[in-house]
Amino acid sequence: xxxxVSNPSMNNKPIAxxxxxxxxxxxxxxxxxxxxxxxMAVIKANAYGHGLELVAPxxxxxxxxxxARVAEGLALRTLGIDMPIYILQGFLGESELVxxxxxxxxxxxxxxxQWQLLSATDTKLxxxxxxxxxxxxxxxxxxxxxxxxxxPGGLSVLGVASHFANADDPSHQxxxxxxxxxxxxxxxxxxxxxxxxxxAILGLSASHYDWVRPGIMLxxxxxxxxxxxxxxxxxxxxxPVLAVRSVAAGESIGYGSTWRANSAAxxxxxxxxxxxxxxxxxxxxxxxxIGGERCSIVGRVSMDMVMVELPAKLEVRTGDRAExxxxxxxxxxxxxxxxxxxxxxxxxxTARVERRLFSPPSEAKIEAGFDNSEKH
Length: 376
Description:
- The protein has about 375 residues and is of the alpha/beta class.
- The chain folds into two domains: about 20-220, TIM Barrel; about 235-370, Lyase, Ornithine Decarboxylase, Chain A, domain 1 (Beta Barrel), CATH 2.40.37.10.
- It contains twelve helices and 18 strands.
- Strand 8, helix 9 (about 200-205) and strand 9 (about 210) form a beta-alpha-beta unit.
- The longest helix is centred in the first third of the chain and has 14 residues, at about 20-35.
- It is elongated and about 80 Å long.
C-alpha cells in the first residue's frame, strides 16, 4: 500500500523565490538616483543567481543590459531580448568576435590584443573601450586609449567606461583620484561615458555621466558593510524541515561532534547544504527564520542538511519551510557571519536550488509569516 501523503504540496528541496517586483523597484531607484543618465542593468552570472530567464524578460525601464561574457549575451538573445547588450569583458578570440557581430552584442575592449584582432578582420562592430582609471584589473592605459581612438580604419567607438575599486566607500580618496583621472582623460572625447556601478550610483553622483551600471543593488544586496534600507531583497531562499528531533543534555549534533546541547533541546533538520550553495563555513549561531522566529544553526553545515535549535514554544512540523535569507533575514547579515557579502551567497546557489517566481501569499499566511506552501 502506498504511504499516505498528508500534504501533497510538500517539496523536498530548497527553493529561491524570486521577487521580480522588488528587483524592478531597485532598478527604479537606480534610475531615480541618476535622472540624467541612461541605465545599463547588469544581469551577469545568471542574474546574480536569480535566474536569467525569470528576471531579464520582466524588467522594464532600462536602456540596455550588461553581462560579463559573450555566452551570457547569447543567452539573452535566445530569450528574445532585442535591446542593446554590452559584454563587459569583451570577446576572447575570433569566434567570440564573430558571435558579437552576428548577434549585435556590444563588447567592451579592454586590451590592445582585442583591438588588433578586430582591426585584422573585416568584421564591422560597435564597441566601447574600457579605460583603467586606477583599479588595475582590466582596461586600457591612457596611451592605448588615445592610440585606438585616433587609429584609422572606421572602428565604431560608442563610449568609454571605467570601474571603481572602492565605490562601496564613497569617502575613499581613491574614488576621487579615479574620477579625476577619468575626467582628465575623457573630457575631450565626444563619445558617451560610464563610470558608476551600484555603490557610485547611490553615493557618488559626480560619476554618473551618460550611463550608470547598477548590478548588486538590483538584487537588494549591498556593496558595502552598511546596507541601504531603500533596497528590497530580490530573493527569499527557503528550505524544507525534514525532521524535528529531541536531543538530551550532553548529546552532540552533526559531523565532528562540534556542538553539544547544554540542556535538552529540539532540533530541526533542514534540507539544504553546501551542495546547494549554502556555505559550509557558516558557523553556529548563524540565524535562520522558521515560523517568523529566529533560530540558530547548530553543528556543521552538511552537504545536504543544516541543523537548527528551535525555541521552546515554537511549533514546527515536517514539511514547514525555513527562510535562510530574504524578506525576514537579510542576505547581507547572513554573509557577514563568514566575512563576505551577499554577492557571494546569491551567485553561489547551485542548480539543485529551484528558482521560482514569488507569488504573494494570502492575507492569512502573511499574518503567520512566509508562505510555506509550495504550489506553482
